[in-house]
Sequence to fold (166 residues):
Amino acid sequence: MDLDTSWIDEFNREEEEYNEFYKQEIGNIRIVLFFINENNELFSSKKYNARLEDNIITKNQILNILKNNISHDNNSYTPSFILKFNIDLDPENIENFIAHPNQFNFLTSENYMTDIHWNKTIQNMQSLNTLYILMKKRTFRNTHNSTKRIYISKKRGKRKTRRKHI
Fold:
């Protein structure tokens, strides 16, 4: 008694066409650093690629990138914002996304002191997953106090009240 399994093979062949629409683990993301001057204007950017393990970019990876880019054009910069753009769209919502893209928000603010988790993404949209880091020029404030301080001290020799001797 032979079982007919040809329908399973045919189903798998037809299903291969749609594999690119299923969510998968993210292997790489793009990291874009924007440098902002004192006038809050973007004037430069750098792009990197980073590998993810288990859809996570670690705190150490982020700190390493920040450390390597803290100085740019002989100026010092600090991270102002870290924004994660992660398209975690379900395959069922692709048509709705194409018709009404403003109803979806894939941009979230992140903290660089923690690991950043990425959601699974449809294979065709994985190249859009990006971590944006806004680096603002560090401004140094005058640390010297401009107010003159007056110190009041007790003088030991003079007392304000005098003793009356009897």
